[in-house]
Backbone:
DNA sequence: CACCAGGCAAGCC
DNA sequence: GGCTTGCATGGT
Protein backbone atom coordinates (compact mmCIF):
# COMPACT_ATOMS: atom_id res chain seq x y z
CA UNK A 1 0.00 0.00 0.00
CA UNK A 2 1.18 3.49 -0.94
CA UNK A 3 0.16 6.35 1.34
CA UNK A 4 0.44 9.98 0.24
CA UNK A 5 -0.82 13.22 1.76
CA UNK A 6 -1.84 16.02 -0.56
CA UNK A 7 -4.19 19.02 -0.23
CA UNK A 8 -5.47 17.79 3.14
CA UNK A 9 -6.38 14.43 1.63
CA UNK A 10 -4.92 11.02 2.33
CA UNK A 11 -4.52 8.94 -0.82
CA UNK A 12 -4.07 5.19 -0.72
CA UNK A 13 -2.83 3.23 -3.71
CA UNK A 14 -2.01 -0.41 -4.27
CA UNK A 15 -4.35 -1.49 -1.50
CA UNK A 16 -5.69 -4.98 -2.18
CA UNK A 17 -8.96 -6.45 -0.94
CA UNK A 18 -10.73 -3.15 -0.32
CA UNK A 19 -14.08 -2.17 -1.83
CA UNK A 20 -16.22 0.47 -0.18
CA UNK A 21 -19.46 -1.09 -1.35
CA UNK A 22 -18.49 -4.43 0.14
CA UNK A 23 -17.36 -2.85 3.39
CA UNK A 24 -20.40 -0.64 3.93
CA UNK A 25 -23.11 -2.86 2.45
CA UNK A 26 -22.63 -6.02 4.46
CA UNK A 27 -24.58 -5.00 7.55
CA UNK A 28 -21.65 -4.41 9.88
CA UNK A 29 -22.02 -0.64 10.30
CA UNK A 30 -24.95 1.74 10.18
CA UNK A 31 -23.43 5.20 10.10
CA UNK A 32 -22.07 5.36 6.54
CA UNK A 33 -24.09 6.74 3.65
CA UNK A 34 -23.42 7.06 -0.04
CA UNK A 35 -22.77 10.70 -0.76
CA UNK A 36 -21.49 10.44 -4.30
CA UNK A 37 -20.98 8.20 -7.27
CA UNK A 38 -17.95 6.62 -5.65
CA UNK A 39 -17.95 8.01 -2.14
CA UNK A 40 -19.38 7.42 1.30
CA UNK A 41 -19.53 9.70 4.30
CA UNK A 42 -19.77 8.57 7.88
CA UNK A 43 -18.82 9.13 11.48
CA UNK A 44 -16.62 6.92 13.63
CA UNK A 45 -14.73 7.46 16.88
CA UNK A 46 -15.93 11.03 17.08
CA UNK A 47 -14.68 11.95 13.61
CA UNK A 48 -16.51 12.44 10.32
CA UNK A 49 -14.99 11.31 7.05
CA UNK A 50 -15.77 11.25 3.35
CA UNK A 51 -13.99 8.44 1.56
CA UNK A 52 -13.94 7.85 -2.18
CA UNK A 53 -12.76 4.98 -4.29
CA UNK A 54 -12.02 5.11 -8.00
CA UNK A 55 -10.59 1.83 -9.04
CA UNK A 56 -7.52 1.18 -6.97
CA UNK A 57 -7.25 4.74 -5.73
CA UNK A 58 -8.80 5.58 -2.36
CA UNK A 59 -9.09 9.15 -1.10
CA UNK A 60 -9.85 10.17 2.47
CA UNK A 61 -10.95 13.79 2.28
CA UNK A 62 -10.02 16.56 4.70
CA UNK A 63 -8.18 14.52 7.22
CA UNK A 64 -4.64 14.49 8.58
CA UNK A 65 -1.81 11.98 8.64
CA UNK A 66 -2.21 11.94 12.40
CA UNK A 67 -5.94 11.03 12.25
CA UNK A 68 -5.23 8.51 9.53
CA UNK A 69 -2.65 6.77 11.69
CA UNK A 70 -4.53 6.95 14.96
CA UNK A 71 -8.06 6.30 13.67
CA UNK A 72 -8.67 5.26 10.08
CA UNK A 73 -5.79 2.87 9.49
CA UNK A 74 -7.00 0.78 12.38
CA UNK A 75 -10.72 1.31 11.74
CA UNK A 76 -10.47 -0.03 8.19
CA UNK A 77 -8.35 -2.96 9.38
CA UNK A 78 -5.60 -2.06 6.94
CA UNK A 79 -2.91 -4.13 8.61
CA UNK A 80 -4.72 -7.41 8.00
CA UNK A 81 -3.76 -9.52 4.99
CA UNK A 82 -7.14 -10.46 3.55
CA UNK A 83 -5.59 -12.12 0.48
CA UNK A 84 -4.06 -14.71 2.73
CA UNK A 85 -7.31 -15.24 4.65
CA UNK A 86 -9.30 -15.55 1.43
CA UNK A 87 -6.99 -18.18 0.04
CA UNK A 88 -7.13 -20.11 3.32
CA UNK A 89 -10.92 -19.96 3.42
CA UNK A 90 -11.14 -20.88 -0.25
CA UNK A 91 -10.02 -24.41 0.50
CA UNK A 92 -13.70 -24.81 1.32
CA UNK A 93 -15.54 -25.30 -1.96
CA UNK A 94 -18.56 -23.22 -0.96
CA UNK A 95 -16.40 -20.31 0.15
CA UNK A 96 -14.29 -20.58 -2.97
CA UNK A 97 -17.44 -19.59 -4.84
CA UNK A 98 -18.70 -17.07 -2.27
CA UNK A 99 -15.49 -15.09 -1.62
CA UNK A 100 -15.25 -13.40 -5.05
CA UNK A 101 -18.69 -11.80 -4.55
CA UNK A 102 -17.43 -9.88 -1.53
CA UNK A 103 -13.78 -9.70 -2.47
CA UNK A 104 -13.32 -6.24 -0.93
CA UNK A 105 -14.93 -6.90 2.44
CA UNK A 106 -13.08 -5.78 5.54
CA UNK A 107 -14.20 -6.18 9.13
CA UNK A 108 -14.27 -2.66 10.53
CA UNK A 109 -12.81 -2.19 13.97
CA UNK A 110 -15.67 -0.25 15.46
CA UNK A 111 -16.12 1.22 18.88
CA UNK A 112 -17.28 -1.39 21.39
CA UNK A 113 -19.96 0.72 23.05
CA UNK A 114 -21.34 1.81 19.67
CA UNK A 115 -21.60 -1.79 18.46
CA UNK A 116 -23.34 -2.86 21.67
CA UNK A 117 -26.08 -0.27 21.18
CA UNK A 118 -26.25 -0.58 17.40
CA UNK A 119 -26.81 -4.32 17.46
CA UNK A 120 -29.28 -4.12 20.33
CA UNK A 121 -31.23 -1.81 18.02
CA UNK A 122 -30.78 -4.24 15.11
CA UNK A 123 -32.82 -6.99 16.78
CA UNK A 124 -35.93 -7.81 14.78
CA UNK A 125 -35.39 -4.75 12.67
CA UNK A 126 -34.36 -3.77 9.15
CA UNK A 127 -31.34 -1.78 8.02
CA UNK A 128 -33.02 1.48 6.90
CA UNK A 129 -34.85 1.69 10.18
CA UNK A 130 -31.80 0.73 12.25
CA UNK A 131 -29.93 3.56 10.57
CA UNK A 132 -32.74 6.01 11.29
CA UNK A 133 -32.88 5.13 14.96
CA UNK A 134 -29.11 5.43 15.34
CA UNK A 135 -29.13 8.74 13.50
CA UNK A 136 -31.80 10.04 15.87
CA UNK A 137 -29.80 8.77 18.82
CA UNK A 138 -26.70 10.64 17.67
CA UNK A 139 -28.57 13.82 16.76
CA UNK A 140 -30.38 13.83 20.08
CA UNK A 141 -27.55 12.95 22.42
CA UNK A 142 -24.25 13.06 20.51
CA UNK A 143 -21.78 15.91 20.13
CA UNK A 144 -21.82 18.06 16.98
CA UNK A 145 -18.96 17.55 14.54
CA UNK A 146 -18.23 20.13 11.84
CA UNK A 147 -16.77 18.62 8.72
CA UNK A 148 -16.58 20.02 5.19
CA UNK A 149 -19.25 22.67 5.83
CA UNK A 150 -21.70 20.18 7.23
CA UNK A 151 -22.81 19.13 10.66
CA UNK A 152 -22.52 15.57 11.92
CA UNK A 153 -22.97 14.02 15.34
CA UNK A 154 -20.84 11.67 17.35
CA UNK A 155 -22.24 8.49 18.83
CA UNK A 156 -23.29 9.39 22.39
CA UNK A 157 -21.14 7.90 25.11
CA UNK A 158 -22.54 5.57 27.74
CA UNK A 159 -22.34 8.15 30.54
CA UNK A 160 -24.60 10.48 28.61
CA UNK A 161 -27.15 7.75 27.96
CA UNK A 162 -26.92 6.38 31.46
CA UNK A 163 -27.93 9.78 32.81
CA UNK A 164 -31.18 9.57 30.83
CA UNK A 165 -34.38 7.78 31.72
CA UNK A 166 -35.96 5.17 29.49
CA UNK A 167 -38.70 7.63 28.56
CA UNK A 168 -36.07 10.20 27.54
CA UNK A 169 -35.07 7.67 24.90
CA UNK A 170 -38.54 7.58 23.34
CA UNK A 171 -37.47 10.37 20.94
CA UNK A 172 -35.30 7.90 19.02
CA UNK A 173 -38.30 5.60 18.37
CA UNK A 174 -36.44 2.42 19.14
CA UNK A 175 -39.60 0.84 20.51
CA UNK A 176 -39.16 -1.98 23.00
CA UNK A 177 -35.38 -1.72 22.60
CA UNK A 178 -35.15 1.55 24.55
CA UNK A 179 -35.02 -0.23 27.91
CA UNK A 180 -32.20 -2.47 26.62
CA UNK A 181 -30.19 0.59 25.60
CA UNK A 182 -30.70 2.17 29.00
CA UNK A 183 -29.68 -1.05 30.77
CA UNK A 184 -26.53 -1.37 28.65
CA UNK A 185 -25.59 2.25 29.37
CA UNK A 186 -26.07 1.65 33.10
CA UNK A 187 -23.98 -1.53 32.95
CA UNK A 188 -21.12 0.26 31.18
CA UNK A 189 -21.33 3.22 33.55
CA UNK A 190 -21.35 0.93 36.57
CA UNK A 191 -18.21 -0.93 35.55
CA UNK A 192 -16.48 0.31 32.44
CA UNK A 193 -13.43 -1.82 33.20
CA UNK A 194 -15.44 -5.01 32.94
CA UNK A 195 -16.10 -4.18 29.31
CA UNK A 196 -12.64 -2.99 28.28
CA UNK A 197 -11.49 -6.32 29.69
CA UNK A 198 -13.47 -8.17 27.03
CA UNK A 199 -10.75 -7.62 24.40
CA UNK A 200 -8.36 -9.90 26.24
CA UNK A 201 -10.88 -12.62 27.02
CA UNK A 202 -11.56 -15.70 24.93
CA UNK A 203 -14.42 -15.42 22.48
CA UNK A 204 -16.55 -17.77 24.59
CA UNK A 205 -15.91 -15.89 27.81
CA UNK A 206 -16.53 -12.49 26.20
CA UNK A 207 -19.73 -13.84 24.63
CA UNK A 208 -20.96 -15.03 28.02
CA UNK A 209 -20.42 -11.59 29.54
CA UNK A 210 -22.05 -9.78 26.62
CA UNK A 211 -25.08 -12.06 26.84
CA UNK A 212 -25.53 -11.07 30.46
CA UNK A 213 -26.61 -7.67 29.14
CA UNK A 214 -30.38 -7.21 28.98
CA UNK A 215 -31.37 -7.36 25.30
CA UNK A 216 -28.22 -9.14 24.12
CA UNK A 217 -28.75 -12.70 22.94
CA UNK A 218 -26.58 -15.00 20.90
CA UNK A 219 -26.88 -13.22 17.57
CA UNK A 220 -26.35 -9.71 18.89
CA UNK A 221 -23.43 -10.92 21.03
CA UNK A 222 -21.86 -12.48 17.93
CA UNK A 223 -22.02 -9.18 16.06
CA UNK A 224 -20.50 -7.30 18.98
CA UNK A 225 -17.70 -9.86 19.24
CA UNK A 226 -16.93 -9.63 15.55
CA UNK A 227 -17.40 -5.93 14.84
CA UNK A 228 -16.67 -4.34 18.20
CA UNK A 229 -14.05 -6.66 19.65
CA UNK A 230 -12.42 -7.96 16.44
CA UNK A 231 -13.00 -11.55 17.51
CA UNK A 232 -12.77 -12.97 14.01
CA UNK A 233 -13.74 -16.47 15.13
CA UNK A 234 -17.20 -15.30 16.23
CA UNK A 235 -19.95 -16.50 13.87
CA UNK A 236 -23.22 -14.61 14.35
CA UNK A 237 -26.18 -16.52 12.94
CA UNK A 238 -29.02 -14.37 11.64
CA UNK A 239 -31.86 -15.48 9.41
CA UNK A 240 -29.83 -14.91 6.24
CA UNK A 241 -26.86 -16.92 7.46
CA UNK A 242 -29.18 -19.59 8.80
CA UNK A 243 -30.84 -20.00 5.42
CA UNK A 244 -27.65 -20.06 3.41
CA UNK A 245 -25.88 -22.43 5.79
CA UNK A 246 -28.86 -24.77 5.76
CA UNK A 247 -28.90 -24.72 1.99
CA UNK A 248 -25.18 -25.05 1.35
CA UNK A 249 -23.94 -27.16 4.26
CA UNK A 250 -26.85 -28.88 5.98
CA UNK A 251 -29.12 -29.83 3.12
CA UNK A 252 -32.05 -29.17 5.44
CA UNK A 253 -32.97 -27.40 8.64
CA UNK A 254 -30.59 -26.83 11.52
CA UNK A 255 -30.83 -24.80 14.71
CA UNK A 256 -28.67 -21.71 15.21
CA UNK A 257 -26.42 -23.23 17.83
CA UNK A 258 -25.57 -26.18 15.59
CA UNK A 259 -24.83 -23.85 12.70
CA UNK A 260 -22.54 -21.75 14.85
CA UNK A 261 -20.70 -24.82 16.19
CA UNK A 262 -20.31 -26.25 12.70
CA UNK A 263 -19.02 -22.98 11.25
CA UNK A 264 -16.51 -22.37 13.99
CA UNK A 265 -15.06 -25.85 13.70
CA UNK A 266 -14.98 -25.67 9.90
CA UNK A 267 -13.71 -22.10 9.40
CA UNK A 268 -11.69 -21.74 12.61
CA UNK A 269 -10.25 -18.40 13.64
CA UNK A 270 -11.63 -16.68 10.54
CA UNK A 271 -15.20 -17.97 10.88
CA UNK A 272 -16.51 -14.43 11.26
CA UNK A 273 -14.83 -13.29 8.07
CA UNK A 274 -16.24 -16.35 6.31
CA UNK A 275 -19.63 -15.31 7.67
CA UNK A 276 -19.29 -11.94 5.94
CA UNK A 277 -18.49 -13.51 2.57
CA UNK A 278 -21.42 -15.89 2.95
CA UNK A 279 -23.74 -13.09 4.01
CA UNK A 280 -22.75 -10.93 1.06
CA UNK A 281 -23.01 -13.88 -1.30
CA UNK A 282 -26.51 -14.69 -0.05
CA UNK A 283 -27.65 -11.10 -0.40
CA UNK A 284 -26.08 -10.53 -3.81
CA UNK A 285 -27.66 -13.67 -5.18
CA UNK A 286 -30.97 -13.32 -3.37
CA UNK A 287 -30.48 -16.75 -1.88
CA UNK A 288 -32.81 -17.99 0.77
CA UNK A 289 -35.54 -15.46 0.10
C1' DC B 1 -54.88 6.21 -7.84
C1' DA B 2 -55.17 7.27 -3.02
C1' DC B 3 -55.91 5.13 1.12
C1' DC B 4 -56.14 1.76 4.66
C1' DA B 5 -55.41 -2.57 7.17
C1' DG B 6 -52.36 -6.42 7.84
C1' DG B 7 -48.15 -8.35 8.13
C1' DC B 8 -43.76 -8.17 9.16
C1' DA B 9 -38.30 -7.09 9.80
C1' DA B 10 -30.51 -8.94 10.21
C1' DG B 11 -34.18 -11.21 18.05
C1' DC B 12 -34.75 -11.20 22.81
C1' DC B 13 -37.13 -11.75 27.12
C1' DG C 1 -46.36 -15.03 22.67
C1' DG C 2 -45.38 -10.10 23.24
C1' DC C 3 -42.87 -6.26 22.19
C1' DT C 4 -42.60 -0.72 19.24
C1' DT C 5 -42.34 1.27 15.03
C1' DG C 6 -42.42 2.34 10.14
C1' DC C 7 -42.80 0.56 5.84
C1' DA C 8 -43.76 -2.70 1.94
C1' DT C 9 -47.54 -5.20 0.38
C1' DG C 10 -51.97 -6.16 -1.46
C1' DG C 11 -56.84 -5.15 -1.36
C1' DT C 12 -60.67 -1.70 -1.69
Residues:
Amino acid sequence: MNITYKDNNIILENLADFKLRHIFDCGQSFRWNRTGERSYTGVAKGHALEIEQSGERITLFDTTPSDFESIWYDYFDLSRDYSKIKSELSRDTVLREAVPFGSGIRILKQDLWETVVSFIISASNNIPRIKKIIELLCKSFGEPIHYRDRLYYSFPDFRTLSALSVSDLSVIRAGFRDKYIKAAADAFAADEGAFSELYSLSTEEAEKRLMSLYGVGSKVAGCILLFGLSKTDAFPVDVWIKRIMEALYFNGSADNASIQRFARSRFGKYAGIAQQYLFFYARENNLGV
In short: Chain A has 14 helices and eight strands. Chain A has a mean pLDDT of 94.
